[in-house]
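User: structure tokens for this one?
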Amino acid sequence: MLDRLHSLIAVPEVQFAALVVAALIAGIAAHSVLRLVVRRTMSDTGAPRTILKRVDAPARLLLPLLALSIVIQHAQLDAAWLAGFVHILSLVVIAAFTWFAISAVAGVQAAIASRNLIDVEDNLHARRILTQTRVLSRIAMALIFMIGAAAILMTFPGAREIGASLLASAGLVGLVAGFAARPVLGNLLAGVQIALTQPIRLDDVVIVENEWGRIEEITGSYVVVRLWDERRLVVPLEYFISKPFQNWTRTTSRIIGSVFVWVDYALPLEPLRAELLRLCEGAKEWDRRVCVLQVTDANERAMQLRALVSSTGSAQNWDLRCIVREGLIAFVAREYPDALPIMRQLRVEATSTDPEPRMPAPSAS
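Assistant:
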């Protein structure tokens, strides 16, 4: 029995299988040890811990594969199936490396996002950092994926021949491919330019195609604008480089809004100015910067009043303008009802159809 066992162990295929199992066990053990060390040495809220959480799953696959690759490189086994096995293993290793690199970039993005929150009042710096991080990380992920796919294709001999033939005939084919890929390349370059110059940032208030909304998402090829009525406007990145648009929060989120009211000339303005100040002081949306009432237009029937009010953001300013508009109209209707503009028309009294007026009947006396 022992002789059979020794003879079985002496078989090269059995030795190779044992080494493969040992390499896989060693890789899994190395991952477990590294994971335990990281948990003991790092806090639960740090940026390195956030990155390591993202790369944990690909590392669990990558470390055993690397150990298996080392074993195969030093294995002395002459078998027909070994070349195919090595090729498959190299493909899986490249895919695991690609997954690990993309996860690492995503971890860096998540770590930066956790340190720069935009759900605060003064979030200009955080939005600037998050915009650069998100756009550049998307571009980096796309490049890593392309490099990984190219590395996988280059392991096939046929792909090398195709690449050589394409390079040999790169004249006309290159022009056609460049023209076809112009929108993709344009959006890619626009993404780099947006990340560096930042004409838009996450949570910016913009007006695009006559639509008011906020920048909700910036990807590697398009921007998602969340409109005021919860619709989503998807705009290519190149749009924000080649066409004009309005950005209400480019340098600061503070904004001034206007309210227009038409009233009669007989209305005194000082009581209305006092009412405007009272409305602003009672509204939490007012940032105490601007509260002005002016006559901006007049015609033969009425005069136009414009109230300017300021807020820390566009959403707060919209609510403040509604409060001011409702309050001023209610004040004028309550205190000066005759000062509201009225379309006066001539009234025609109804006449009787009888040819002669009727005389009252004599009283019986």
